Amino acid sequence: MTSDNIAPDEQVLPVPRVLADEPVDLAISRSDRVFTGKIWDVRSETFDYNGENVLREFVDHPGAVAVLALDDDDRVLLIKQYRHPVRSREWEIPAGLLDVTGEDFLVGAQRELAEEADLEASEWSVLLDYATTPGGNNELIRIYLARGLRATETTFERTDEEADMELRWVGLDEVVDAVLAGRIQNPSLVIASLAAHASRQSAWTSLQPGDAPWPEWTRLHPAAS
């Protein structure tokens, strides 16, 4: 044995670090809005990276919330809605933009569930947060798990693509099977159903409180927080 009681042929492994993304705030020398759209904008930014000026253009997005509503029979509320960019009527979960100034994330999710499905819930948890397309936009989505469901006292009038939405209750296992078979591809539905399936297997111990902070969104939207 060596003086520190480690055999010469014994490998010393490093202490594992927690697997996590690393927030980086670089010096931005120029930031311009090059397109102003009805829902979101396109921004061009120049920043210093490893001593070089780098130019990138991306969709500047306010962020969004989505809701996986789960009833007492482990059925998920799905909404079929037309999405023009992909020319499809997709199965989705209720979701909406964080475009109301100063609105709390959870309040926004509760509003979307009511507006799109005429439902409210007594139990709210954060299922997970994710970035939709980090190479092309700064959109962040928080997905909530809503349980203890009941109908709202009033119903909402829906227009445009929401006017002919189809609602369906589908077992969580059936949704996961459809995801893995590639029959449904909406990202929030895919991610939420797989996360809920995994969390259920661990007795929902991965869930966070409904009012949990969202530091990554706050970091990217300091003026709105």
* Helical content (DSSP H or I, runs of 4+): 10-25%
Mean pLDDT comes to: 90
CATH topology of the largest domain: Nucleoside Triphosphate Pyrophosphohydrolase
CATH architecture of the largest domain: Alpha-Beta Complex
Tell me the number of structural domains: 2
Summed up, what is this model?
By secondary structure, the protein is α+β, with helices and mostly antiparallel strands. Helix content is 19%, strand content 36%. The strands form 3 sheets. It has a 5-stranded mixed beta sheet, sandwiched between helices.
Structure description:
α2 crosses α3 (187-201). The protein has a 5-stranded mixed beta sheet with strand order 7-4-9-8-11, with helices on both faces. The chain has a 3-stranded antiparallel beta sheet with strand order 1-2-3, with no helix packed on it. Strands 6-5-10 form a 3-stranded antiparallel beta sheet. The protein has 2 domains: 28-60, no CATH class; 64-220, Alpha-Beta Complex (Nucleoside Triphosphate Pyrophosphohydrolase). A hairpin with a 4-residue loop joins β5 and β6 (88-92). It contains 4 helices and 11 strands; from the N terminus they run βββββββαβββααβα. The model has no long low-confidence stretch (mean pLDDT 90). Helices cover 19% and strands 36% of the residues. It is of the alpha+beta class and 225 residues long. InterPro entries: NUDIX_hydrolase-like_dom_sf, NUDIX_hydrolase_dom. This is ADP-ribose pyrophosphatase.
